Amino acid sequence: MQKINNMGVPPQSTQPTQATLQAALAIAPYLECETPKCGGRMFLPATAVKRISPIAIGTNEPMMVPIELNVCAKCGSVLKELLPSQFREDF
After folding, report:
1. What's the mean pLDDT when you consider all of the chain?
2. DSSP string covering the chain, please?
3. Is the pTM of this model over 0.70?
C-alpha cells in the first residue's frame, strides 16, 4: 500500500536519481552576485570571525567563532543567499 501525506499526495523520494540530478543541473541557473550591475557568477570562500564576550558565555576568555561565507570574485560582496539567516543582516 502506498503512503499518502496529509495533502493527499504520495511522498517523493528523498534522493533524486543521478539522471534526474544531471537533467536538473543542465537547466539550473547560476547564482549571481546580488550587487546591482555586478552580475559576477564566481565566488571565493572567505571567513568572518565573531568574538563572543566571556561575560556572555560564562568563561574567563572570549570565544572566537569562524563564520564561513562566499564573496563575489568580481566585486567582493558577500553572497547572502548561502549564509544562515541569523547572519544575513551582518553583511
Report:
1. 89
2. -----TTSSPPPPSS--HHHHHHHHHHPPPP--SSTTT----EEEEEEEEEE-HHHHTSSS-EEEEEEEEEETTT--B-GGGS-GGGGGG-
3. no
